[in-house]
Design brief:
Largest sheet: none
Radius of gyration: 18 Å
Strand content: under 5%
Shape: elongated
Order of helices and strands: HHHHH
Distance between the termini: 19 Å
Number of helices: 5
Protein backbone atom coordinates (compact mmCIF):
# COMPACT_ATOMS: atom_id res chain seq x y z
CA UNK A 1 0.00 0.00 0.00
CA UNK A 2 2.84 2.39 0.84
CA UNK A 3 4.49 1.75 -2.54
CA UNK A 4 1.20 2.52 -4.28
CA UNK A 5 1.01 5.87 -2.49
CA UNK A 6 4.59 6.73 -3.51
CA UNK A 7 3.85 5.81 -7.13
CA UNK A 8 0.70 7.97 -7.08
CA UNK A 9 2.61 10.93 -5.64
CA UNK A 10 5.36 10.51 -8.22
CA UNK A 11 2.74 10.40 -10.98
CA UNK A 12 1.10 13.60 -9.72
CA UNK A 13 4.47 15.34 -9.39
CA UNK A 14 5.67 14.40 -12.88
CA UNK A 15 2.40 15.48 -14.49
CA UNK A 16 2.31 18.74 -12.54
CA UNK A 17 5.93 19.64 -13.34
CA UNK A 18 5.47 18.70 -17.01
CA UNK A 19 2.12 20.39 -17.60
CA UNK A 20 2.90 23.55 -15.63
CA UNK A 21 6.38 23.87 -17.13
CA UNK A 22 5.04 23.44 -20.65
CA UNK A 23 2.16 25.83 -19.96
CA UNK A 24 4.46 28.52 -18.56
CA UNK A 25 6.68 28.51 -21.67
CA UNK A 26 3.58 28.45 -23.86
CA UNK A 27 2.04 31.48 -22.18
CA UNK A 28 5.34 33.31 -22.41
CA UNK A 29 5.46 32.49 -26.14
CA UNK A 30 1.95 33.84 -26.66
CA UNK A 31 2.55 37.12 -24.87
CA UNK A 32 6.31 37.62 -25.32
CA UNK A 33 7.67 35.59 -28.25
CA UNK A 34 10.78 37.77 -28.33
CA UNK A 35 11.46 36.84 -24.70
CA UNK A 36 11.25 33.12 -25.46
CA UNK A 37 13.72 33.40 -28.30
CA UNK A 38 16.02 35.62 -26.21
CA UNK A 39 16.56 32.56 -23.99
CA UNK A 40 18.48 31.01 -26.90
CA UNK A 41 19.93 34.32 -28.14
CA UNK A 42 17.85 34.36 -31.32
CA UNK A 43 16.35 37.66 -32.47
CA UNK A 44 12.90 37.87 -33.99
CA UNK A 45 12.74 40.48 -36.71
CA UNK A 46 9.54 39.89 -38.65
CA UNK A 47 5.88 39.08 -38.05
CA UNK A 48 6.20 35.59 -39.57
CA UNK A 49 8.80 34.76 -36.91
CA UNK A 50 6.51 36.10 -34.16
CA UNK A 51 3.55 34.10 -35.42
CA UNK A 52 5.64 30.93 -35.72
CA UNK A 53 6.89 31.20 -32.12
CA UNK A 54 3.36 31.92 -30.92
CA UNK A 55 1.99 28.98 -32.89
CA UNK A 56 4.60 26.32 -32.11
CA UNK A 57 5.70 27.24 -28.60
CA UNK A 58 2.43 28.91 -27.63
CA UNK A 59 -0.52 27.17 -29.25
CA UNK A 60 1.00 23.71 -29.65
CA UNK A 61 2.52 23.90 -26.16
CA UNK A 62 -0.85 24.73 -24.58
CA UNK A 63 -2.38 21.82 -26.48
CA UNK A 64 0.31 19.45 -25.22
CA UNK A 65 -0.11 20.63 -21.62
CA UNK A 66 -3.87 20.09 -21.92
CA UNK A 67 -3.30 16.59 -23.36
CA UNK A 68 -1.02 15.74 -20.43
CA UNK A 69 -3.78 16.64 -17.97
CA UNK A 70 -6.53 15.03 -20.06
CA UNK A 71 -4.68 11.71 -20.37
CA UNK A 72 -3.74 11.84 -16.66
CA UNK A 73 -7.40 12.15 -15.70
CA UNK A 74 -8.34 9.12 -17.81
CA UNK A 75 -5.37 6.76 -17.50
CA UNK A 76 -2.44 7.64 -15.26
CA UNK A 77 -0.24 4.88 -16.64
CA UNK A 78 -0.80 6.11 -20.20
CA UNK A 79 -0.03 9.64 -19.00
CA UNK A 80 3.37 8.47 -17.76
CA UNK A 81 4.02 6.82 -21.12
CA UNK A 82 3.03 9.99 -22.99
CA UNK A 83 5.14 12.24 -20.77
CA UNK A 84 8.14 9.94 -21.06
CA UNK A 85 7.80 10.08 -24.84
CA UNK A 86 7.29 13.87 -24.77
CA UNK A 87 10.43 14.64 -22.75
CA UNK A 88 12.39 11.83 -24.38
CA UNK A 89 11.78 13.30 -27.83
CA UNK A 90 12.96 16.70 -26.65
CA UNK A 91 16.14 15.15 -25.23
CA UNK A 92 16.65 13.07 -28.40
CA UNK A 93 16.41 16.18 -30.57
CA UNK A 94 19.01 17.96 -28.44
CA UNK A 95 21.29 14.90 -28.68
CA UNK A 96 20.76 14.89 -32.44
CA UNK A 97 21.77 18.55 -32.52
CA UNK A 98 24.97 17.69 -30.66
CA UNK A 99 25.72 14.90 -33.16
CA UNK A 100 24.92 16.96 -36.26
CA UNK A 101 25.73 20.56 -35.32
CA UNK A 102 28.10 20.40 -32.36
CA UNK A 103 27.97 21.14 -28.63
CA UNK A 104 25.02 22.85 -27.03
CA UNK A 105 25.25 26.12 -25.16
CA UNK A 106 24.45 26.57 -21.47
CA UNK A 107 20.68 26.69 -22.10
CA UNK A 108 20.66 23.49 -24.17
CA UNK A 109 22.92 21.64 -21.75
CA UNK A 110 20.69 22.54 -18.82
CA UNK A 111 17.56 21.46 -20.66
CA UNK A 112 18.88 18.19 -22.05
CA UNK A 113 19.55 17.22 -18.43
CA UNK A 114 16.09 18.26 -17.27
CA UNK A 115 14.35 16.58 -20.21
CA UNK A 116 16.31 13.35 -19.82
CA UNK A 117 15.59 13.26 -16.09
CA UNK A 118 11.86 13.82 -16.59
CA UNK A 119 11.72 11.23 -19.39
CA UNK A 120 13.49 8.61 -17.28
CA UNK A 121 11.42 9.37 -14.15
CA UNK A 122 8.19 9.09 -16.14
CA UNK A 123 9.42 5.87 -17.74
CA UNK A 124 10.26 4.33 -14.36
CA UNK A 125 6.86 5.33 -12.94
CA UNK A 126 5.20 3.98 -16.11
CA UNK A 127 6.92 0.63 -15.55
CA UNK A 128 6.01 0.55 -11.86
CA UNK A 129 2.38 1.37 -12.62
CA UNK A 130 2.23 -1.37 -15.28
CA UNK A 131 3.77 -3.90 -12.92
CA UNK A 132 1.36 -2.92 -10.12
CA UNK A 133 -1.61 -3.22 -12.49
CA UNK A 134 -0.45 -6.66 -13.69
CA UNK A 135 0.08 -7.84 -10.11
CA UNK A 136 -3.35 -6.55 -9.13
CA UNK A 137 -4.95 -8.27 -12.13
CA UNK A 138 -3.22 -11.59 -11.43
CA UNK A 139 -4.17 -11.43 -7.75
CA UNK A 140 -7.80 -10.77 -8.65
CA UNK A 141 -7.80 -13.66 -11.14
CA UNK A 142 -6.45 -16.02 -8.47
CA UNK A 143 -9.40 -15.33 -6.20
Amino acid sequence: MKNSRIIDLATWAIVAISALGTLSVSLMALFDPKGVMALVHTPLDNTDAYSSVRGVFGGVGITLAAIMVWVFRRDRTAAMGFISLFWGCYAFCRALTIAVDGPLGAFGNQWIGIETTLALCALVVYGLRRRAATTHYLTAMAH
